Amino acid sequence: MACIFYKMPYVFSHSSFRFPETGKKLSLQVNMGNFNAEKKESKSSAANTYGKILKYTGLFGGVQVLQVLISVVRNKCAALFIGRVGMGITDVLNRTTDMFSALTNLGIPLSGVRTISAQQASENRAKVLASIATIRLWCLMTGLVGMILCAALSEVVNKYFFSATLPQGFITLVSPVIFMMAVYGGEAAILKGTRNLKRLASVSVTGSAISLCATIILYISFGIDGIPWALLAGTFALLVSALHATTKLFPWNKNMFSASHLRAGKALLALGVSYVAAGFAGTGAEMAVRAFIAGTKGSLGDVGIYAAGFVLCVTYTRLVFVAMDADFFPRLSAVADNRTERNAIVSKQIDVCVLMMAPMLVAFIMFLPLAVKILYSGEFKGAVGMCLGAVGYLFIKAVIAPIEYIPLAKGDSLTYFVMELAYDVIFVVLVIFGYNRLGLEGAGMALTASYMLDLAMVYAVYRKIYGYAFSANTLKIIIVQFCTIAIALATFISGYGFIQYILGTILFALSLLFSIRKLNLTWNQIKQTFARRMQRK
């Protein structure tokens, strides 16, 4: 499912910006007693809860450090060899294939995770294998439909969305990406649902590393003409890595091409259709914004800067959110009908996300101009203002993302769709208005404003429907870290030169110490885990 600035839960995203989550086979038993929702929970219970969240955030976060390094090299090469126009073309191709993927994947990857996760918990291997066959069959079919549809409508999209600014034939050329990502989405769902998280991590690293090598060679050799081939090569590397991992555990079987598996897919569709609509609305909104930037007031070069700001925001904060789809969602789905345990899990996830995000954002604010110069080039300096405007969006995302998983876990597709559609409308209106008035800086501020409104809507609606409310501890964490980030942002914008870096360093230290203090119940566990790994080596 596509997403607006990765707003929607991390089911899968696209091409050069994709980051699958992970795993070696784990047999994880979740003791829900650790998610005690009583007002006065014990320290040992809190430690165990935070520890489990940090364990898998650490697993995926370690992978994401490698992913960030790969992304840094890729983006630098893109800035040098294809420029901001080339990055604009890359981003438009990504969003186009995202849109067709969202339209045709029928939500199979998402509903597949939920289905396999539930059957895995019941330890019914026969049902798990049957579901895997069904998911693979439907992913093959939806991928073929998406690829054909994209190729057939490629010139229509180029003409009416982007005023024929894309090189001719580029959209047609990347249409196989949709098929490959559909198949990859099914394989990733299998690994997530069966809790093979470490194996999924190795898929991510291997695919990204191969993709990087291919991308650099193609950019150097062909420049802008190498863009579609780089997207194809990167997606193919990811798919092959996933198939190599999954077929060892669950080999492909010709019996999956049967009428019974075709009929069984209807159950997956019942859950996934509303999510498809939500995903399509999201990618459509992103396409609308890019079409406005490229064809109304800006150019493909401005789209490239917008994409650079997007990548900076998403790449930097990726390690905070990347574990949610693979670990948090299955855990939440397992207790979806137990309000007390469900709300406790969500609150703990918010705590960890905010405590990890806040120090990172303070550092992000301090070093953003330098990062843009190092990671891109001087022609991308417009991304600085956009990212500063989007700092609030990044913080609010840490708060709202766990809450938005509640209807997904409960299978409440209608509520999920309505809320996503409402956000999409707000997003398009505010970002177009912000860009029209203040350029890319206004677009960044509009992102923050759209998330503020979305948080208000989601909290009010989900509190009424699902009974979710922030715990006192969660609210305290949010307020303290929000104030720290707000002061850091105000200090940086004021432009006091060297003093702003001194104050920024102090604020970073305070934010980090507060986070460590709140998570200190797990600090010894982290050190012990690291020590054990070193001993194994």
Q: Report helical residue fraction.
A: over 70%
Strand content: under 5%
Structural class: mainly alpha
Summarize the helix and strand pattern as letters: HHHHHHHHHHHHHHHHH
- Sheet bearing the most strands, described? none
Which secondary structure elements does this structure contain, and how are they paired or packed?
Blueprint: H1 43-81, H2 83-104, H3 108-121, H4 125-162, H5 170-173, H6 176-193, H7 197-222, H8 227-249, H9 259-297, H10 300-334, H11 339-375, H12 382-389, H13 391-410, H14 413-466, H15 472-494, H16 498-518, H17 523-536
Helix pairs in contact: 1-2, 1-7, 1-10, 1-11, 2-4, 2-6, 2-9, 2-10, 3-4, 3-6, 3-9, 3-10, 4-6, 4-9, 6-8, 7-8, 9-10, 9-14, 10-11, 10-12, 10-13, 11-12, 11-13, 11-15, 11-16, 12-14, 13-14, 13-15, 15-16
Give the gist of this structure:
This protein has 537 residues and is mainly alpha-helical. The chain is 81% helix and 0% strand.
